[in-house]
Amino acid sequence: MRLTRWAMTATIAALAATLVSTTRAEEPKKLKYPDTKKGEVVDEYHGTKVADPYRWLEDDVRKSKDVAAWVEAENKVTTAFLESIPEREAIKKRITDLWNYEKISAPSRHSGRYFFFKNDGLQNQNVLYVQDTLDGDAKMLMDPNTWTKDGTVALAGLEVSDDAKLIAYGTAEAGSDWNVWKVLDVATGKPRADELKWVKFSSASWTKDNAGFYYSRFPEPKTGAAFQDLNVDMKLYYHKLGAPQSEDKLVYERTDNPKWTIGGGVTEDGKFLIISIGDGTTSNKVRLAYRDLTAPDSKVVELVDNHDNKFSFLGNDAGVFYFKTDYNAPKNQIIAIDTKNPDKKNWKTIIAEAKEVLDSVDLVGNRFICSYLKDAKTAVKVHEVDGKFVRDVELPGIGTATGFNGKREDTETFYTFSSFATPTSIYRYDPATGESKLIRQAKVKFDPSLYEVKQIFYASKDGTKVPMFIAHKKGIKLDGTNPTLLYGYGGFNISLTPGFSVSRLQWMEMGGVFAVANLRGGGEYGDEWHRAGTKLQKQNVFDDFIAAGEYLVKEKYTSPKKLAIQGGSNGGLLVGACLTQRPDLYGAALPAVGVMDMLRFQKFTAGRFWVDDYGSSDSSSEFNELYKFSPYHVLLKNGAKAYPPTMVTTADTDDRVVPGHSFKFAAALQANHTGPNPVLIRIETKAGHGAGKPTAKVIEEVADQWAFLVKTLDFKPEIGK
């Protein structure tokens, strides 16, 4: 039998894995971690004294030599551990091969031209193209890969002018949330002189005359404070093309409430500026205001003057505005507000609340295209503007459909469809006829027919039925021996739906089971489901995740020694909380960029936005609940204890969830962990919370994670099969 290079690599790796496995079983050794100093910091919260011995690790790594030295020392330990894993190189080669396929986004139509992104395969950043027809020649407009040698400056936002002659675009350096906005001339492909700084959590909205755009920004931070200080005092401005930022016109601010967020968008007809004033948290509850752009020097008019509900602007007929909202509809509805008669008693329901959650709405082709979540899967319905039902959109299977963007007069729109074992496909949709036509399909080097995806429902601790997707190769034996990766999030009204991922595909290809639990705190079943996992009920989220792991063990998909858990950001908190509450249930844990100190998160950058979901240590009742599950503090309270193998991941320029969370958690875990299980931290450099991370860095990180699981879960991966 002739072995291919891939097969030979896999065979050698498997033999090496056997030797390593034997060594691990016979000679377990505890790693030598860096000596991490402890401070004497003690805070008092509502009469309770709380020690914070690793407070010094909150300091910015760019400014603190001590923190920088600690990061370097920790990375040396982690790198040495990962490089000792024989299978790692073969894993990296295989994921590189899988990743190396052409990726194209759904096109976006503007003034008869089509704009789309393409990645040839392994480019660090996606490249922007334009074409006059769907099958015509494409012209490259913007290649972020040329901005830096290492690909660490990324495109962070893009808005095409109404005449498609100009593009406003944001850039982000090293994954930071701070963006610099510029303007590109489509005809020449060259940037103009415009440059807008200190923009964060904002897009741009062009005026109908294409003479400028509205955007939001924060004041310039104090020197050296950009990556840690709270983001407050957001303001809405108008930028006139060609003018310096110093001359931008202030349009709206709320000096009475500097923590509120402010955003603005111009209606499609160019007649109104719609202003959304957020309550400063991720609940997305807003106040609404508008300004008549047809009347010079018109005043801003308040339309909704409280933060009781969420409103998403969809379009307008003159002074009648359409919104998706949860007003009197926890699963959302579409309403019309006539600005001439704006009292709530005059609000008109256009499309009533349904049994399923109304997730997103687009007004395209003079019809509302409504995407619903049916047990965390996409279902799409089309309605006339008066609310009359037209048809269901026939999707190619059970999965996730996204897109349907465009303008009201457009005669076509586009959407993508994917699932766990179904690579992304792009469809052209005709709102008038209902015809869907496949125009592009990703060609990944694997056979989707070898895999299966199922959805089950399991009971949580309090009896609540929770859905979970389970994906794996066909024909696996339910004998409790399968390495299994359980993923979750459970927060901020965010829904986890079936989608294609090369890294997850590789996990299944290696012989692993992949599971996603749709925990409370997410948006899969509307506001009630979301609120059931927030503040004083946050423990429900952890109970749901723990119950998911117990189900996988009970049904013999896996066993505790073969079960790994993974999550990022709020999902990092999830993993941190569950591994400290049930260390016996897991064979490994991968918490990424997690919120680990629940008593101080609101003191840094965007942390104040999360209070609506988490609560705050400033409240006595909420402090007590936060202190119970805060992963960092649980480690300190528990003292010496055995924990599962853990690899924490974060990045030095993460200004969303500052890396001090992960630094402190890792230090406490290493100090209080007993036994030989490795507990590591992998700290990426020149990277942020995740957005815009170069492909090369992503591949390295995934290879490290899978190699860590191969070793700690003790299994022989099938590589390249």
Automatic annotation (TrEMBL):
Ranges where the Peptidase S9A N-terminal domain occurs? 35-441
**Domain Peptidase S9 prolyl oligopeptidase catalytic, which positions?**
499-714
Could you say which EC number(s) this protein's record lists? 3.4.21.26
Catalysed conversion reaction: Hydrolysis of Pro-|-Xaa >> Ala-|-Xaa in oligopeptides
**Pfam family, any one:** Peptidase_S9
Q: Which family does it belong to?
A: Belongs to the peptidase S9A family.
Listed name of the protein: prolyl oligopeptidase
Give the species this sequence originates from: Gemmata palustris
